[in-house]
Amino acid sequence: MHAIVRRYDGIDQSRSEELSKKVNETLLPSLSKLPGFKGYFLIEVGDNAMTSIGLFEESAQADESTRVAANWLRDEKLETLLPNPPKVTSGEVVAHKNGITVA
After folding, report:
1. Cβ distance 86 to 6 under 8 Å?
2. C-alpha 25, offset from chain centre
3. Burial grade of 2 (CB within 10 A; 0-12, 13-18, 19 or more)
4. In this predicted model, what pLDDT tens digit does every residue of 39-88 receive, in sequence order?
5. Residue 32: its pLDDT value, please?
6. String of b and e for 38-69 (b: at least 16 CB within 10 Å)?
7. Among 9, 17, 22, 1, which Cα is nearest to 92's?
8. Distance CA 32, CA 65 (A)
9. Residue 55 phi, psi (nearest 5)
10. Which burial class, exposed, middle or buried, applies to 101 when counting CB atoms under 10 A from its CB (0-12, 13-18, 19+)?
11. How far apart are CA 83 and CA 85, in angstroms?
12. Contact 95, 101 (CB under 8 A)
């Protein structure tokens, strides 16, 4: 399994609820259709930042999710909400345990 982590800094906090809603309504359906999709998490980390974690079977699939997310950002006209490009980290998952229930 491969993970891709994106940290978004400089988020307009007054619009974070809007961002969460759009992610759930429009980004997640697109990402979940990608081959190898295993999961996605969006985390509000404070300090005008959010982090996303995507899980995929292979590295190339995780890389494709970055392209999908960039196109989504442009198509949804969210450049002012997320003014800075994300800091992207990716790699092979070397340990994990499933069974998490997220509300």
Report:
1. yes
2. 13
3. buried
4. 999 999 988 999 999 999 999 999 999 999 999 989 998 888 888 999 99
5. 96
6. bebebeeeeeebbbbebbbeeeebbebbeeeb
7. 1
8. 10
9. -120, 130
10. exposed
11. 7
12. no
Mean pLDDT value of segment 81-98: 89
Domain parsing of the chain, residue ranges: 2-92
How many percent of the chain have pLDDT more than 70?
95
Residue among 11, 31, 9, 7 at smallest CA distance from 19: 11
Averaged pLDDT, 8-13:
89
Of the candidate CATH numbers 3.30.70.100, 3.40.630.30, 3.30.2000.10, 3.40.50.2300, the domain formed by 2-92 belongs to 3.30.70.100
Q: Residue 100 has what pLDDT?
A: 64
